[in-house]
Amino acid sequence: MSKFGQRPRARVGKKQMVVFLRPRQASAAHQRAAKTERTNQEVLCDAVNAVFTYYGVETMAPPETTRAARSQQSRAAIRESSNSPACRTGRQSYAGWFPEADVDRFQRLCKENGFSIQSALEFGLTLVTGVKPDEGAGWMEVGAPMDVGNPET
Q1: Distances (CA, A) of 42 to 14, 18, 70, 87, 137
Q2: Which of 98, 139, 151, 153 has the most CB atoms around its CB within 10 Å?
Q3: Contact by Cβ (8 Å): 15, 107
Q4: How far apart are CA 135 and CA 118, in angstroms?
Q5: How far apart are CA 121 and CA 14, in angstroms?
Q6: Which of 132, 136, 128 has the alpha carbon at shortest distance from 152?
Q7: pLDDT digits (tens, 9 = 90+) for 113-131
Q8: pLDDT band at residue 142, thresholds of 50, 70 and 90?
């Protein structure tokens, strides 16, 4: 929100999607963005589209980027137990702004298949980067199917 309580023009009609990643997976996502000279938002869009494709759903268009270059802003800090809920402790946020209709479609897909947006985005980033979160063997028991071949462990 701007200081006047209105969304910036570039974000009107959009919603933010945020995923909280373990440092290893967050690093893989950032590395993919840097290697391909794309924004974090574009990499997150790839992850969303990977989930859509996995379920045979029409993908969304890449985000409109108006920046001439990737932001050199530092990465989000790793959350600590003193400043975040237990489910986010030890994780970094990774986010992007997307058209409301696409976010709503993604939310419906998650709800219809019985998994959280968090687990679906982690799954999508696993498909895109080949790196699973550092959660151990049952890292996605609540969510998307994990038949993703044999990504890095």
Answers
A1: 15, 13, 11, 25, 29
A2: 98
A3: no
A4: 13
A5: 18
A6: 132
A7: 998 999 999 999 999 999 9
A8: very low
Q: Which two tokens stand for residue 42?
A: 């574009």
Q: Return the HEC string of 58-100.
A: CCCCCCCCCCCCCCCCCCCCCCCCCCCCHHHCCCEEEEEEEEH
Cβ contacts of 122 within 8 Å, gap of 6 or more:
19, 21, 25, 133, 139, 140, 143
Q: How far apart, in whole angstroms, are the C-alpha atoms of residue 4 and residue 6?
A: 6
CA distance 111 to 143: 10
Instruction: Give 17's strand partners.
Output: 96
For 84, the token pair is 């975040």
* Total-model pTM: 0.76
